[in-house]
């Protein structure tokens, strides 16, 4: 899931007579901000890349009514993935706008979060919604989409759903998606420690980074302090406390929660939740631009539900 995606089509035709004609074209994001933190496995944002502005995210349509001082560019005119959800008010207005903009790329049965966090400071927000396609060397999903939520042009949250041909293929692809995330490399070995809830964990070194990791109820959790030997103890405590009140979704494979800290002060945290269910791989992410990024990522993941009826 790289930060920058390009897509090219090359059409070559050779006639049997006296001339040769060639042509090439490309698709780009048209200057839209890239997806959050290198998380998608797609190679481009092609025909249906939409950025829309709104006054705030909110967690109900009343907080951010669709079309209220909103501007939309490159909106798809293709058919929607399904009918409007019966309970549209369950989804924040910015989510409704993003899912509608995806058109037919928001495939039937697609999911979206009923909860999204507020950006720090409550500034104006926008979204960047586009379909995803697999890279040549990545997991070969059939169809998918990615939605970034931005404030001041910077990502504060995102969600992505990629649909596979089978449940087993989706589950086996989890590790590939996780490895594309900062801090997503699975550690091994290390020193045994006890978490605040007396659950056993390991502390290990991966490259120049320090990682605390553990497993529980079909999920792997890891907290990474990048480029330092200092243990990420305060962040581990926050994750453990947040998990005590969170309801993570069930996963057909081993789900992953990755908290990556790229600043010793803890001021550059990215939280990623990845799991598979019913042939889909889901990925939710928050950054320090979101209020309570750890709690918000867990809540956002637990709120994913079918959008199109």
TrEMBL record:
Q: Does this UniProt record's set of keywords contain Signal?
A: yes
Q: For this UniProt record, give its keywords in alphabetical order, as a comma-separated list.
A: Signal
Q: Which domain of life is it from?
A: Bacteria
Low complexity: compositionally biased ranges: 52-86
Q: Where is this region: Disordered?
A: 27-87
Task: Give start-end positions of Polar residues composition bias.
Answer: 37-51
Signal sequence coordinates: 1-21
Q: What is this protein called?
A: Lipoprotein
What organism is recorded for this protein?
Answer: Alicyclobacillus sendaiensis PA2
